[in-house]
Amino acid sequence: MSGQAGVVAVTCLALEAGIARGPGVSVLCNQGSGLRAALRAAIERGASGIISFGIAGGLAPHLAAGDWVVASGVANGEDVIATDRAFHANVVGANNVIASPEEKIQLHDETGAAAVDMESHIAAEVAAAHGIPFAACRVILDSAHRKLPPAATLGLRRDGSPDVPAVLRSVLQQPGQLPNLIRVARDHYVARRALQSGRKQLGIGLGFPYYNSLAFDRVLA
Q: How far apart are CA 197 and CA 100, in angstroms?
């Protein structure tokens, strides 16, 4: 984590962390149980708000790479934590990469969520448990019809950077995935540009100037 207190940006990739970092913003680049512990520590140091920031997989069929989703709520199973009712799209949390179009269609049908990521549900739960204002702002990387090739779903290094040797080994073992991997790289470029542009617009504190007035609560779907 960089910095102290302020608004905490929750990311998974080193790229996301680099874009999110700025005045009034501390960054956590983590997942799973490690993320829960890191968030609790940040709250103890006086975090004023938490925002899930980065890329996501598309579930709604109309969304394409580079589209923004600002969540009205974050779903985890049947449990939904509302963020800001001014927006009209939920994000759903997943503990594993949702790689195939079939999985995305099923998850969209089950939850109605527009996008999926692996951090928002954890961050939302911790924020709600501690009464900390929360928001989720995500940019679509892979659209609902796009299949992620095996090399794109490999685990990351501890710092959130890609494991390049593992990616190369995967491509050598399954060279037929290369065209899909190139398409993912192009989508990644589009998503990164959109994330950078949106970050500039959010400005200091990632758009949390009135965080004390943001309301969220827990509802059951």
A: 28
DSSP strand pairing (6-11 vs 25-29): parallel
Tokens of 152: 């794109």
**For 43-56, how does the pLDDT look when each residue is reduced to its tens digit (9 = 90+)?**
998 888 999 999 99
Structure tokens at 79: 């449990």
**Between the CA of residue 19 and those of 4, 14, 123, 186, 207, what are the distances in Å?**
18, 9, 19, 18, 14
Segment 55-91, tens digit of pLDDT: 999 999 999 999 999 999 999 888 899 887 667 789 9
pTM of the prediction?
A: 0.86
